[in-house]
Amino acid sequence: MKLLFSRLYREKLTIEKMIKLFCKFKHYSNGRICNECEKLLRYAIDRIEHCPYSVLKPVCNKCPIHCYKKEMRAKVIAVMRFSGPRMLRYHPILAMLHLVDKQKSVHKINNISKQQNKEPIQKLLR
Ligand SMILES: [Zn+2]
User: Fold this and answer.
1) How far is the CA of 29 from the centre of ligand 1 (A)?
2) If we measure between CA atoms, which residue out of 65, 67, 88 comes closest to residue 76?
3) Which of 35, 70, 111, 119 has its C-alpha lying 20 to 30 A from 29's C-alpha?
């Protein structure tokens, strides 16, 4: 149920599955992810937890804020390119929910920026 109702939980679980899938195929890890991918996963989770949009967070590739450091951004893009198309096969429920999030989030973000003209969202960034 948490998977259905908690947007951030879903987001964290999705990135975890994507990084693990990437590591399994690219780094041939057995069950456990390698140190490099572990670092990327911790970083991604931290970014999600500090996202100024919080529960209204858009899916990352639609987010207007680029909160990743350059190096980490390049790594996560490689993960998404590889794991994205494979998610439907390995984690179909998460993949479907991600497609739903992709559709609805954009509207919500547009609403937020209209309501919060006084305080731009960028100001909330650390
Ligand atoms: Zn790895």
Assistant:
1) 7
2) 67
3) 70
Identity (one letter) of the amino acid at 38?
A: E
State in Å: Cα 111 to ligand 1 middle.
38
pLDDT per residue rounded down to tens, the chain (126 residues): 677 778 889 999 999 999 999 999 999 877 789 999 999 999 999 999 988 887 777 777 777 778 899 999 999 999 999 999 999 999 999 999 988 888 875 545 555 555 444 444 444 444
Ligand 1 centroid to Cα of residue 78, in Å, is: 12
Q: What's the N-to-C CA distance of the chain in angstroms?
A: 31
What is the model's pTM? 0.77
